[in-house]
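Fold sample X.
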Amino acid sequence: MEEEFKNLIKVSFCVLMSLAYCHLVSSNISKGKFRLLSITPIIFVFTILPTFLTFLLPNAIATLFFTWMANFKLLLFAFGQGPLASDDHQPKSLIQFISIACLPIKIKRNGSNPTSKRSPKLPLNWPTKFLILAISVGLHDYMELFVHPKIVLLSYCGLVYLVVDIIFGACNTIVHFILNVDLEQPSDEPYLATSLQDFWGRRWNLMITNLLRHTIFNPVRSSLETLLGQWAPLPATLATFVVSGLMHELIFYRLTRTSPSWEVTCFFVLQGLCVVVEFSVKRLLAGRWRLYPAASAVLTVGFVLATANWLFFPPLVRTGAVERAIDECKVLKFV
């Protein structure tokens, strides 16, 4: 554990120095290929940096934060776009630049996200989620002994939701305290989604959704609009899910330390195909037929859970990554 803390400090220092370079040097280079060239070494560093962490959870979080999110934000920044770009010709401060680049946050703008003002149907605050997660981790060994394996597998969906929401929520709290800015919520009660579009586009992991929208969906849609017209969002949606699947495959590779099975990529490709079908059916029906919200919510969440149990979790369970991750959570409770 002591050695891992030392590695974590070294990785954090390297991230800070790399982003300081991007802010002080790359931001003064004209946007385009020359700024991209100046940022390319940092993208390479952020890709390999998580491999210096030996524990599974820190490695996976670092891969998500740096290899995926920070690199995608830097790619947008290279062309003067995205959250790192200057606002109204006012450059961001160094601490703002670093916080936005390496953490899963999005500064709230007036009218930017009306759903963030909506009162939650199931008010679970951050401490409550942390308590539920701690209890779930503590009971995991007993569940494996006395509960059906399929139910245990289903419980992992709740654990993933809690872990992601707690980590992203903690980042929100820290940045809000340091910068005194209002931030978008990391998710919007995904268990109440009434369609796959609603789940993946407006409720689950909104920081990743927003980043993929700007880096993959919008460019692909724009490039195909002349050819496909109003149907251009369909291949753009599928491309977005393919990229998401590949990035998750990298995270799983870092978690399992085994060769990719490509099951998680298939999970996201399947979700993308179903979103495309759902979008097409809705457009063809033009609102002439619609399920009750409660029924559509059950079908949507049920489909996501069923396909997650089929394709998403088996690689983690088969390689023992889930057990090791839960053991690490237990260790952290006593540190």
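Fold sample Y, listed below.
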Amino acid sequence: MLKVGIIGLGTISYIHHLAIEATGLAEIVAVCDINPATQNDYPDLPFYTDMEEMLDQENLDVVHICLPHYLHVPAAKTCIDHGVHVYLEKPLAMSYQEGRELADYVESHDSKVAVSFQNRYNKTSQELHHRLKKLVSEDNGRVLMVKGIVTWFRPESYYEAEPWRGRWDQAGGGTIANQSIHTLDLMQWFTGQELVASKGKLIQLTDYAIEVEDTATADFTFTNDVHGIYYATNAYQENSTVLVEVVTNEGRYVISDNALYYYADKYGQGHLICQDDIFPSSKSYYGMGHKLAIQALYEAIINNNEDYISVADALPSMMMIDLLKQSSQSNQKVNAKELL
């Protein structure tokens, strides 16, 4: 059994806890948080308020980093320096350049670092990705365009409970860095193309006392003239279903309400292909991907392979976010080569 530690005992850490146990490959042996009160959640485990102390005292194989965004890369590097593998919550970093620096750091060390883009492991995502790869590689088909829509709700109390969530220098963004980053990741993953340029806008629709945007829209251009349209907001009144559409030269696929549909023509009836397994809690929109994403890293450690979502895999999402930020500030289309 792999020995696991968790750093950061906020909301998302409980999802990690359940997923770690569900893999059957690891056990949580230590936890860490700067707030001593969180020890009450793990009364039977060694508890630390200092990450370095935990890494020095415990013989850990893997650490799950569930910290505020601005601490992701520094904490990951510290774990790597201690020879520990890392499962890193999204976003990868605060910027594309910081993510690139972490990718280089991983390359020069032996630790594996996986990034939590667990939605890639949903049944709908896996099936669609498989079909698109087959279409392009075997049938000489083409992906033409992709669309992502996220209409969710976050009350002002969400930001008041953890003030870092509303700050640019600590969160790196609102919905783009926290809620809808998974949709950005899926959009570029499904296209199979590299990002070329983006034009978009970040705005606030709510009257909350926050710095970051709660709403974002963008047009993305990928290689091979693939286009993407993206809209996300935290200003809706509920967490509505995420919609992802991929249009090919042979038809279109739609993921909605945790199901994948295929439409052979523009006005025809959709054909249900598969449905996601649903996470049994109020966070049902998370899906079951956390277990599979975490399990992939654990199996890669045990079997010494690279079959997990790596830092390099997560870099395109950071590029999409950075281009969107720059475009919103300049009100102009921004080319990806400007970040490289």
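Sample Y note: Residues 153 and 238 are 5 Å apart (CA to CA).
Also: DSSP finds ten helices and 15 strands in the chain.
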